[in-house]
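Minutes, project check-in
Item: structure for the 247-residue chain
Input as provided by the requester:
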Amino acid sequence: MIDLNHQPKLWERVSALVDQAAKATGDAQPARDYLGPSAMGHPDSCLRQAQYGYMGNPFNFSGQLYRLFDAGHAYEALTIADLRRAGFTVITERRGGGQIGFSLANGKFKGHIDGVIVDGPEEFGPYPFLLEHKALGKYGKKDSWAQVKREGVQKAKPEYHAQTQSYMAYLDLTENPAWFIARHRDTQKLFTEAIPFDPVIAQAMTDRGAQIIQATEADEMLPRIAAAPDFYQCQWCDFKEKCWEGG
């Protein structure tokens, strides 16, 4: 029986207010006007979805998801501090200031990295190598950190693996394997995996980016990944309604 007299508890009211403020702040941020490796998603995902994002269409992110993004940035800073305390030299900014990254096609395709480990304990060399960081953990019943540790990055999170390959290629950090470090949001455990450079995957990501940019400039929409909107990948797409209503 539905309790029509239910009054929200204190924690519910506070959470709702915080999430509402986080969503308002996140939604107010200007849309990206460029395509990046992180926006292209899974190597086998829908190119049209990435194209909608590149075209500036707003994502329907919840306040909770925006706060997860914020937490990811905070945990990234903590992990870098941990590495430095353990004797690693981690560079996160260019000499003149600003995040390290790349920019191509007149700024239409670019990305920024978490850092470069340029020195440290001899046993972990040779240096330098790319640092890619993610904060993972339980979301519902799924623990993505445990999955990455169990299966490896390429199988568990191929989108992160492909993103790392792009950064290695464009920043000329291909000689030594990149470090992918996942920090568990609950336990603070760190999982580190060395990812060798794969030129085939890096080129595939470049080709995807070029395809998205060229199609958009020609006012062409790329094909959908499915023949009907009930396809499972369409169910969590922010652009499902726009896509299937001829937008």
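Outcome recorded: The radius of gyration is 20 Å.
No further action items on this chain.
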